[in-house]
Every structure is written in structure tokens, then in C-alpha cells.
Amino acid sequence: MAKMNMIQALNSAMDVCMNRDPNVLVMGEDVGYFGGVFRCTHGLYQKYGAHRAIDTPIAEGGIVAAAIGMGVNGLRPVVEMQFADYIYPAIDQIISELARLRHRSGGEYFAPLTIRAPCGGGIRGGQTHSQSPEAIFTHACGLKTVMPSNPYDAKGLLIAAIEDDDPVIFFEPKRIYNGPFDGDHLKPATSWAAHPMGEVPEGYYSLALGKANIVIPGNAVTVIAYGNMVHVAEAAIKASGLDAELIDLRTLIPLDTDTIEASVQKTGRCVVLHEATRTSGFGAEIVSQIQEQCFWHLTAPIERVTGWDTPYPHAFEWEYFPSQARIIEAMQRTLENN
Amino acid sequence: MMSSDNKKTYQSKLFIPTASSRPENKPDYSHLKIPSPLDSQRPDVLVDAEQVRDLAYGIVRVLDDDHQAKGPWQPDLSVAQLHTGLRHMMHVRAYDQRMFTMQRQGKLSFYMKCTGEEAVAVAQAMALEDGDMLFPSYRQQGLLFVRKRPVVDMMCHCISNAKDNIKGRQMPVFYSWKEGNFFSVSGNLATQYSQAVGWAMASAYKGEDHIAVSWVGDGTTAAADVYHALVFASTYKAPVILNVVNNQWAISTPQSFANTGTTFAARSIGFSIPGIRVDGNDFLAVYAVTKWAAERARKGGGATFIELYTYRTEGHSTSDNPDSYRGKNEAAHWPLGDPIERLKNHLIAIGQWSEAQHLDLEKELKADILAAWKEAISHGSFEDGPHWPVSSMFEDVFKDIPPHLQKQMHKIGV
After folding, report:
1. Rounded to an integer, what distance in angstroms lies between the CA atom of residue B220 and that of residue B246?
2. What is the CATH number of domain A213-336?
3. Does domain A2-200 have CATH number 3.40.50.970?
4. Contact across the interface for A68 and B195, Cβ inside 8 Å
5. What is the pLDDT of residues B222-249, one digit of tens each?
């Protein structure tokens, strides 16, 4: 075991996979010689060579297309989109091609890509460096969609994603790259060193895609979160003193509906969180599935706490970011109904 | 309301390109300068792109107006190979005619012919190795004939019956055939072009000799993926052949809306990739240029960009009538003729073929296609099946069917 932040854990996952399988390579803008703008691919170029940590032209559509061709030819590319906000030029290649290739070819062809994309705000990135576009990819059938919330999960899930024969969109909440963030930007930054999930095995392990994690067990209300909202929710639950159960989804597709349903059927109350915009966000899908499966167990309307339906602001970042206060209010509203 | 005075005085300066002809014009291609086969150099395969700029602006030809093979690009093709090429092209045409007719009779939802362009796919496939990966667009059915895909299987795909290898998931002509290294055809144009470059990069990464080959049409050259393909191919010297089939028309959009006033071949010069324009209806020239490009790729010289100068004799698909947007019989004015006629005339000119043999072969292939159709339809029709089971719709979305899809499967009771 070693102390790792999320960047080191992701780096270790790629290192482990490249070491085990010569068909694994990483590619993207600035990922080679420089080691990535967030340092996630640091040292891989020096260790494995320029042909396995490949610097690419600045064209996301071209990067994903080339990786698809490589995947069809037996390689296992791990593609970095420098920011999730830059993924849109590649969206035709991801949704029309990558996601549907296996189906449209009757199972003849597939491309086992992992596309890593740092997402989310809270880093003063404005609207072009803060988005959380995960819902778009969950709507395109054929993609697995992952968003870890801590270093241990990040490494285990990334190894699973790389080894998976289906394409995986792997979102990395960049606000928690260096430490867990509870939503209070005025507090000093904390590091992963003090967090139990910052203990990461140095070697190989993987976590199954599609399995949620119950972070805090509880009986009064279910709180469903993923990515950096897990830490905000955890702090909100502690601050409120409520007996809430916190579920970290880890994977959106496939979705661990069993864990969600078991919890909501127990608590009868639910708050769904995400940082992404509200309308048609992935929370809408979760709420819909809960009312289909748990309607007669519910004692209160399901609440959503999300980013607003505006572009991510620069000046009003903390008015936009779902705060502990909003989460506590939502939990309390669900508890007002008996 | 705009006054009539305003209408007269206002004159937009916005330039809009015109077509080679519209129904109200008489087609006229007399401005096209068709060079002689002696006019084009045949450089060493490892030449720098800038040394062969002339090839991007000329037209590489082998078959001269007297039907003889001439000039530096004459390929090393035996009479038997020429007969094979002729047979494949005629087979494709017979197939297209049958499938078009069957669409008109309601047996297929849709069809696309490649009439007038048969030399492109047939000659190119013959110039490649079986291990080379093909990333086609939707008008390269000739590749499948050369690689010996059973015609019955192609038809079964087009009618989505129980024998369709892609399980009724795509429209007719969107073939996929892994056994023949033929990639799944996409309807989103140009996406396969940059994927082909990635496939070629992987081939080089693994130290293999296989190359990738891809095709787009003249209209599709406007798409960003084409430039992704060119910049990636050039950056990594990928062993790939990138073809532009300039058949003059993209449904009703003339090539003037994409050619930017020059040749398509010229576009690759800025990427340090040799651009070669070739007479796409000259079987020998298409074969020769493709062979050159394949050798260049295999020797580490990187990509070649080939413009196949041809003409789409018929409509884009069964869904459009070309008489509604281009001059009547424009095809008859096309100065580079018909690829089958030209190879036939060449074989006759060298004493290796006759009109009688040609008619016999036509008859034989027509009968072969009819027999194949009867067999295909015996495996199921588009209207009445049998098709794949409905449950197959839920397969292959992922490698294994995840719980949410299993639930949806049960919901519709399959």
C-alpha cells in the first residue's frame, strides 16, 4: 500500500496496464513528453517510449477516430481528453461510431477504448473548463460511463475500464485530484494522505464496473451521489447529524439499481446529487427509476440538488456549485413529510 | 416590403458555385483537358510529395483513345488478371441492376449503385493484399467481389433476413465483413477515413506490413474528419491510402461546392502527402496508382492521397432522381467514358476478347446473380422474414447484456 492522490492512482493504473499488456498505450494532447497538463501520464513516455505515450495533434475528433482504428486493429488505447469540455469535437466519433460499432457490425468489430476526461468545476475554470457532460454519454447506448470519487476507486475502476472490451468514458473530477473537497472553498485544502481511500495498492487490482459503494450506512434518507459530490454529501450528512445513507454510484452505466432500490425501499426518502446541470441530467434518470421501482415505499417526494441550468460561471462558481447547505435543506425537506 | 426598385439595385456579392449542368442547361464537358498517358511521370515510390505536385493537377492515364496501354504507368497485369477485372466489374454491374430492380419492386428498403465507377473498387482491391484493411464508403461494393464474398450473403444483408451477418441492424449496402477485412460501413460520412489512419498506425506499431485503405466521395471532403485523417497520416507517416472518389455529384450537390476551385488531389500537398489524380474509369491506371501507393506505404513512405476522377452515372441512391437536378444525359457527355467499355475495348484491341465473348459473359453473370437472388430470398425476405429473433436487438450493444437491457428484453417479452 502507498499513499496516493488521484493523479498518482490514475497514473499507477495506466502504468500497471502498460506493463502487463503491450497493446495498451496512452494518447492525447500533451500526454507524452510533458506527462499531461494534470500530470496523469507523468513518466509513462520516459518509461515506455514515445510510441506508447503518444503526443497527438490538437484535434479531439481525430484522436478518438485514430484510437478507434487502433482498437479495431487489436490495441487497447487509453485516450485523454485534456478537459471533458473539449470532448464535443469528438462526439460524432464517440456516439455514432465507437458506441455502436459492435452492434452495427453484428458483433464483428469493436474498439476497447477508455476515454479519460477531467470534469467538473470548483477550479475557477469558467464555462470551458468546468463542465460535467456525463449524462450525454449515458444516453448513447453502447458506452460504459464511470466517475470515481477517490484514489483507491480511481485506480481499480480505471484498470477495469482498460481491460473491458466495451468502450468506457471515464470522468475524473479534477477538483478532487489532489484532495477530497467538501464544498467549502474557504477552508484550507486537504490532501488524500489523511483519507482512508488515499491508501492505494501499488500493484494490480480492479473494481467491477457497475457496483456502487455505500459510503455511510443509514436509515432515514438515501443520498445518491458520484464524483466530487460524494465528499460534499458526506460533510453535509455529518454536519446535519441526520441518519442518512450515502451511496457513491462509481459507475453510471451500468447502473447499480439493486443497491439504490434496496436503500430507498429501506429509507423511503431520497436526495439525488450531481454537479452537472439539472434538466435532463443523470439525476432525472435516477429519480425516474426510483419512482418506477420504489414508488410505494416513498414517504416524500425525491429531491434533486444539482448545478443550475446555466453555463458554468466564473465569478459565481460557489453560487453554482451544489453546497452542503443545499444538500442539508433537501434532506430536511424529505424528512418533513411523514 | 421591398420595393421593386430595391430589388433591381441590390446585388449580393456572395459567390455561389454553379453545377456542371442543371436540367435547364445542356451538359458540356468540353472545357475538361484530358491529358495523354505519356504526360504523367511515374516517380520512385519514396518520392517527396513536393516533387510530384504535377501529379495532383494532371490525370494519370494508361489507356489511350485508341484503347492501347501507354506511358510510364502501364501496370504489370497479365491477360488473365485483366479478364478477372473485367469479370468483377461486370458482376458488380449485374448485381447493382438486379438489386435496384428489386428495390423498385419493394423487396429492399433502399439501394445504391456504383454504375460507371466499378473500376475504382475492383482495380484497387486487386492491387492490394488480402491482409490490407478496407475502410470503405457506401459505393465500394466491388471490393467485396474481388475478395470473394458470396453474393448471396451480400443480398441477405440487404434484405435483413435471418442470414444477414449483421443481424438486420443496418440499411442495405452498409456491409460489414470481418473475414474479408472489410470494415463496417457507416452512414456518418468520413468517420471511417480517420479511423483507417489509426488502424494503419496500429499496424506500424505492431511492426506488421498490412496497410489500411479508405474512401470518401468528393462531397465528403468538406468534412473535418478528412483533415484529421490527413494530419494524423502525415504526422505519424501512417501506412494508409486515402482515396477521394470524385464522381462529380453528392446527391444534388456538385463537386464545385467542395473542390475549392482546384483538384481534390492538390489538397494533400500541404500535408506533405503525395496527391495523385487518376482517371478513375481507366482500370489499368487505377490499378497502377494504387499499387504504387501500396508499395510506398509498405516501404515506410507513409500515405498517398488519390483522387479517382470518375462519374456517377446514376442517382445517388434509389431515393433521388438525377434528372431533377442535373442536365439530362449528362453522363453521355462525360469525356472519360465507361470503365467496363474501356477495358473491354482494350482487351479486344490486344486480341484477347470479343464482342461475342462479352455478351456471353454478360448473360452468364446475369444468370448467376438471378440464381443468387433466388437463393437469398429463400433464406427470408425483408417483409416476411424470417429475420433474426427480436431478442438479438439487445445483443452486441455491449459485449455482455447488462441488467438494464435484460430487463428491457423481458419487458417486450423476448
Report:
1. 10
2. 3.40.50.920
3. yes
4. yes
5. 999 999 999 999 999 999 999 999 999 9
